[in-house]
Amino acid sequence: ALSHYVQVRGRFHRSIHLGHDWDDHAVLDTYVATPSVRELALRITKSVPDPLGSRAWSVTGPFGTGKSAFAVFLADILTQPKPVHPAADEIRKAADLQLAPLLPVMVVGRRSPLTPALLAGLANAFRTISPDFVAGLETVPDIDAEGVWLLFDKAITVAQEAGFSGVLLIIDELGKFLE
Q1: Could you tell me the CA-to-CA distances from 153 to 99, 103, 122 in Å, in that order?
Q2: With contact defined as beta carbons under 8 Å apart, do 111 and 179 qualify?
Q3: For residue 120, is pLDDT > 60?
Q4: How many helical (H) and strand (E) elements, i.e. helices and strands, does the chain have?
Q5: Other beta carbons within 10 Å of 41
Q6: Which of 4, 22, 102, 117 could form a disulfide with 168 if both were Cys (CB 3.0 to 4.6 A apart)?
Q7: Dist CA 69 CA 129 (whole Å)
């Protein structure tokens, strides 16, 4: 039987859940950074310090192709003072990334409105670095898209005051907000 010759690591038996796994070093220990993954990560990383660089990226593909795992890898590159994955450090060097880490704001899609999920993601990200900012989020009434934009603009300022370069917003399973 084939199972006598080939074994699949247990990590590949379950999918990545960005909300639970983004800062789990064990997830990164076994992540395979293929050439296409490295190229995409390098393109995104190079755009971060560039004032004219892209600020929004969409990674699409069929279920189970590693989009969430890529998000964890990208967060390792852009949000950690010392990345865990060996390829992450290589990509930072290749991109000549000199900035302080970004503060990760992780949001996982679900069948509910997007705005409360964005506010919850901000609250989780800022809980330890700015309790006052989080307290302000908890008193925000229903807001429109412009209000969300203004909150993120304020979040960037608060993150920079705390020593981060800015904010990295990753929305996983964005399509679920549309269901």
Answers
A1: 19, 13, 12
A2: yes
A3: yes
A4: 8, 2
A5: 25
A6: 102
A7: 26
What is the spatial distance between Cα 39 and Cα 53, in angstroms, rounded to a whole number? 16
Which pair of tokens denotes residue 4? 């006598």
CA separation, residue 156 to residues 21, 78, 109 (Å): 24, 15, 22
**72: closest CA among 61, 60, 80?**
80
Single-letter code of the amino acid located at 110: R
What whole-number distance in Å separates Cα of residue 153 and Cα of residue 148? 9
| Residue 76 to residue 106: CA distance in whole angstroms | 13
Q: What's the CA gap between 41 and 25, in Å, rounded?
A: 18
Given a contact cutoff of 8 angstroms between Cβ atoms, the answer to whether 69 and 27 are in contact is yes
| Termini Cα distance of the chain | 42
Question: CA-to-CA distance for 144 and 41, rounded, in angstroms?
Answer: 32
CA distance 82 to 66: 23
Contact 76, 88 (CB under 8 A): yes
CB atoms < 10 A from the CB of 72, how many?
24
pLDDT tens digits for range 40-73: 999 999 999 998 989 899 999 888 888 988 999 9
- pTM comes to 0.85
